[in-house]
Amino acid sequence: MSKAQMNNLSNRQSNRKRHIHRYSLPKQCPDCGGKVVLIRNSKIYGRSYGSGWCYYCTGCGARVGTHPGTKLPLGRLSNAECRALKQDCHRLFDRLWKTGRERQAAYRWLARKMNLPVSQCHFGWFDKAQLLRAKQILTQRSGRQGYKKREGRRCVHESGKRSFYQNCRKATVGNR
User: Fold this and answer.
1) ∠ CA 67-13-131 to the nearest 5 degrees?
2) Is residue 60 helix, strand or coil?
3) β-pairing verdict for 162-163 and 155-157
4) Rounded to whole angstroms, how far apart are CA atoms 77 and 17?
5) Of 133, 44, 117, 51, which is closest to residue 85 (Cα–Cα)?
6) Is 88 helix (H, G, I), strand (E, B) or coil?
7) Which helix (H) or strand (E) holds 163?
8) pLDDT digits (tens, 9 = 90+) for 67-104
9) 3-state DSSP call for residue 121?
10) What angle do CA 93, 54, 90 make, to 5 degrees?
11) Which residues pair with residue 163 across a beta bridge?
């Protein structure tokens, strides 16, 4: 690995740690007020996943996994309904950025639509109201009709404007 690649990796890890450390370790459930304990996630799933650990509410069963090698949560505790909403949001969001838009640009777009700073635009940390709003925005975005597949090339609009999206309305496929 080159020195530049190592510096880039180190910077990403440092940024990730700064982002994660802003949140405290859960001690009380935000949904029911119950006691939260750190347990092996195999007690819930029957086998170990990810880091092998999760925070679990003894009152309502809400849970969240941890970052590998740490006790830091991946997000906020979530009950079954919020976990399903997070999965729906991720499915819709992944469809958005995996069809041509860069992931960070997609997060900037969503943060702007939700009136949030980009640093706070993370499904793992959204509460139920934010998840419902994100799902609404993403559903409206993915529900648009008339997209034309770019087939590995940039789309060129009739106006001549080039687009970085794989799927683009009113576009003809071009080489540039």
Assistant:
1) 50
2) coil
3) antiparallel
4) 19
5) 133
6) helix
7) strand 162-163
8) 999 999 999 999 999 999 999 999 999 988 887 678 89
9) coil
10) 5
11) 155
